[in-house]
Fold this sequence. Notes:
It is a single chain. Among the domains are: 383-479; 483-614, 2-Layer Sandwich (Heat Shock Protein 90), CATH 3.30.565. It has 25 helices and five strands. It has helices at residues 2-18, 23-37, 42-59, 62-78, 82-98, 102-118, 122-139, 142-159, 162-179, 182-198, 202-217, 223-239, 243-260, 263-279, 283-300, 303-319, 323-336, 342-360, 362-371, 379-446, 451-479, 486-501, 523-543, 573-577, 581-592; strands at 507-513, 548-556, 559-566, 596-601, 607-614. A five-stranded mixed beta sheet has the order 1-2-3-5-4. A hairpin with a 5-residue loop joins strand 4 (596-601) and strand 5. 38% of the residues are buried.
Amino acid sequence: MLKATITLVFFTASVMLLYAQQPDSLILLKADTAFEMASVNSDSAFILASSALYESQQLGFNRGEANASNAMGWVYMHKGRLDSSLVWLNRARDIFTSELSVYDMIRVNINLSEVLIRQSRFGEAIVLALEADSMAGVLAHLPLQTDSKRLLGILYRESGDFDRSVRYFNEAVDGFEKQGDVRRLVNTSISLSILLRRLGRLDSSLEVLNRCLMLAADRPGNDYQMAMIREHLGETFYLKKQYQESLEEYIAAYHLFEKLGNMGDVAYEAIVVGKTYIALKQYGDAESFLNRAYAISDSLGFLSYRYDASSELASLYEVTGQWEKAYWQITTAVQLKDSLDQQKQLQRLDELRERYESEKQEQEIELLRATLAAESALSQRRMQVQYVTFALFLAVLGIAYLIFNRIRLRQKLQEQMLRNQISGDLHDDIGSTLSSIDINSRIAMLKIDDRGLVASQLDKIQQNTRSIMDSMAHIVWSIQPENDSLEKVVYRMKDFAAEILEPQGIRFTLQQENTSPELKINPLIRKNVYLIFKEGINNCAKYSGAGEVICIVEIRNNTLEIRITDNGNGFNEDVAAEAGNGLRNMRNRAAQIAGTLVLTTAPGQGTTILLRVPVT
């Protein structure tokens, strides 16, 4: 209610101010106001942008029409209608180019890149962002330079070019520092530190985080950002095996989250604090924190955190020789996550049971030893049983060999299907696009004296080239063998969600239930699952108004289920059906992998997206 009231007051004040201006400045102010309002109230922003567009066309005011088109594109992006957004933004870019307005061309290039990122068209987005960076450098316009470099850092990270990503993130950090924008400086630095840690450059990650700590400490009311910095410092120190330093940072993050009342984060910090105490051999403190983590996770219904706490407690009791407690904790862990490395956990459970029973039943063991002599008469029968068992074992081996052979043949078939898919993609998409480039170039050569026609054909060639780059990026990512496990896909999902949601203060939790990190996922499924997840997270970040987003990844009945839930504003499902290609693209991607996508939402009740995909 308060947000709606503030928006209404802002809208009314803006309109009153507009009527005091001259026609040209009135149009520009309307367009700028619409652009700023797009993320807050897209409907009101649409009305203002439409008005500015109509008046510009009536007056023949090109600059006004371009600014209004830019605002329309931004409004459509926040409404989730990305194709419509691209149409309007490209229209604005064409007008600004004809007007030789370099500053505005840079702005629109950055806006276009933001939309293309949401469509995972990274190749085209990189081209536009590089153009923006180059033009901003010529203008020596620091804010635009910084925005374009941060954008390039994100794009190169998503494309797998980590060295360039690090370089552009560093340049963006320098730019935010020169502008005095501490909040964005710290958020970008945290993203940089995560990337450095991922590359194994731990000292560099620590250097970045310590600088963040100094900057964030000077800002009042900044407990959440401070807690995140402390947590990442703890993780980096732990990887360096500097456990005492890691413990200090984890405990600082624990107390900050506790002060904020973020109990999910408190549970996570309690687990890593307990794990670090175990590394330091301070077992009493470790037990206290891990028990608290389990209790909080149980009250919140966080199954994955309960599993982590139980596993760490089992390790603790095993190290300290408390076999009965270790037995019960590992039993709890197996019950919570039976499908996670089941064979290894059961073997460990048997060992603990044997130790426990040997400790508690020594007299019975002695009795069994005494009874062995009486069993000698049955030795012949046991030998026969052993022969039968051996024969069964050979039969099982034969069956296992046949199954292995079948699996190998299935893998070869899947490889052939992948080759066929890549071949089809290259032929249908890239082949047809190259043919278009050839035709466009021939037309341009034949009509070389017609400058307008040549420019039009060159523009088409440029668009087709960007399309090829984007297609190649998708193909390369989908066939990389190191990305074929569920764990790698989930890790990439966590990184993306943290990058998008954390800078906006939106809490994000990813829970895994009944999943196996070693589960293999074929390239087509992992590509479409990741793109659907990205679309859902972008929607949450841009216009849900949520304070918390929870993602649950679960394997149930040989089906991968991904549920994304936010506590935001929600919306009318009938409106969603007409909102454009966003939801339709998500459902089409689900259909490509024999999956289903269900949207559940209502005004004021948040939104839930449920994706189901068969994985075996």
